Amino acid sequence: MKLPKNPHKGMKIYCHKCKRDNPTCNHYDIHRYKVKIHVVGGDGRKRTKVLNSKNYNDAVKEAIDFENELKATNYEKVVIEEAGNDYSILDAVVQYQRYLSGQHKYAHKIKKVSVEYQKECMRYCKFFLDSLHEVRDLMATRVVEVNQNDVARFYLWAEKHYGAKSFNKCMGALKAFFAFLIDVEEIMMKNQFAVYESKSVVMKDVTTLTKEEFQTIIDSIGVVNPFQLLGGKGERKNMYKPYLVHGFKLFLLTGGRREDVVELRWSDMLITIEGVKFFKIANKKVNRIRRTEEYNKYVPINDDLFELLLEMGYEAKKNTDDYILFPERNVKAKTIMDALSKSFSHYVKESGVKKDISLKNLRKTYITWMHRAIGKNTGLLTSHSSEKVLKDHYIDSAVLSAVEEATLKIRMFGE
Questions:
Q1: Where is the Tyr recombinase domain positioned along the sequence (predicted)?
Q2: Contact 278, 298 (CB under 8 A)
Q3: Which of 206, 208, 211 is nearest to 412 (CA)?
Q4: What is the per-residue pLDDT across 7-59, written as a single tens digit (0 to 9) for each?
């Protein structure tokens, strides 16, 4: 954004973040034209307005209209723009993105959120802007002008595009966006998304694997057809990998998330004075959200898991920093994670197991049997915040009736 050599009287370029006229910063996405009008007979007083248009000639027209309005009201009209609390809807979303990414000017109000959460919030905000753009000029529409008609139009759009769970997340994200404008930016306005009818989410039954089903999947590796047909041109992809058997067993016996299992190292193993073995690993999910490296989680090494580790070379590798799974890797961890996920689904189908399951069901199977052994303390090891989260998402109700045992001597499938 530039001013011509001889700009219209009082015209400036203004940065909403730096709160400066004619700034030298690189916050180009929130720069706007601004006009300062001297009050005639006002002892140097001025009236200012940040203009909507990013086109210089259109901005000049806005400036002239503003000056005429001031003259008509004897310069009594005051537009408070420099406080930074009267954004266009487009600028408001830009400010929200800065806030979520930790770059907001009010550092004391910033909450630490994950990058994935930031992307999700911005995606829903973009959809709202798309909906609003059908009837309004996004640069000319102030956030205080958003009304219930705009909410209703977006509500109907979201109903058509999302299931109940995603619909609630979408509407909740917009409610949080406007709460940010009110609570953080201190804009005097009503949260138009404060009241809406959320959708009832029907919880699916938690699905775990039996010992026979898991063994059937393992036995199918190297036996059934390893090729998966890709859509479109009849292409085939070989889903077999030499680390699948050990990988699937590690998922089942540690209950870890994909990155936990794939990045697990022999050096993560610790042994207490009493001889209790466990893995101490970074709690990547919590650390990402809180932007720290101080949180860890602990995976008990029970008899099942230790037998597997012996099979994978424990005696030779126990004092090394090698990866436990596929130590000779020449690809990124993400590539291995994706291969494990896709290959598991392939071998479930080819093995004839009829359940609708994926790799994450191995974690649910583990947590189910963990809960049988140590009950309400399960969340201490799985990093879940409440018993309700476990029951809703991880614990198979068929196993909940088993007598809880207060011990870490877990045997998978109860044997």
A1: 204-407
A2: yes
A3: 211
A4: 999 999 988 767 778 888 887 777 888 888 887 765 667 788 888 888 899 98
Decide: helix, strand or coil at residue 410: coil
Using the CB atoms, write b or e for 309-334: b if 16+ within 10 Å: beebebeebeeeeebbbbeeeeeebe
* pLDDT score recorded for residue 282: 86
The CB density around residue 7, as the number of other CB atoms within 10 Å, is: 17
**Residue with structure tokens 């109700």?**
397
Residue 248: burial class (beta carbons within 10 Å; 0-12, 13-18, 19+): buried
- What CATH number has the domain spanning 211-414? 1.10.443.10
- Strand partners of residue 48: 36
CA distance 140 to 166: 30
Under 8 Å between Cβ of 402 and 210: no
- When pLDDT is averaged across residues 386-398 and rounded to a whole number, the result is 55
- Give the predicted TM-score (pTM) of the model: 0.58
Q: List, by residue range, all CATH 1.10.443.10 domains of the chain.
A: 211-414
Q: Which secondary-structure segment (H or E) carries 238?
A: strand 236-238
The span from the CA of 163 to the CA of 172, in Å, is 14
Beta-bridged to residue 46, according to DSSP, are 38
Whose structure tokens read 């005429």? 68
Q: What is the residue type of 220?
A: S
Cα Rg, the chain, nearest whole Å: 29
Q: Which of 138, 160, 150 is nearest to 191 (CA)?
A: 150
- pLDDT tens for each residue of 128-185: 999 999 998 888 888 988 999 999 999 999 999 999 999 999 999 999 999 999 999 8
Of 124 and 88, the one with more pLDDT: 124
User: What's the rounded Cα separation, in Å, for the pair 16 and 89?
Assistant: 14
195: left (phi over 0), alpha (psi -120 to 50) or beta: beta
Of the candidates 268, 272, 273, 274, the one whose C-alpha atom is nearest the C-alpha of residue 254 is 268
Eight-class DSSP state of 42: S
Residue 26 pLDDT: 82
Question: CA-CA-CA-CA torsion for 134, 139, 142, 148, nearest 10 degrees?
Answer: 10
On the 0-12 / 13-18 / 19+ scale of CB atoms within 10 A, 82 is: middle
Q: Which residues contact 51 (CB under 8 A, 6 or more apart)?
A: 32, 33, 34, 35, 59, 62, 63, 66
Residue in this structure with the two tokens 């291995």, named with its chain if needed:
336
CA angle (119, 357, 359) in 5-degree steps: 60
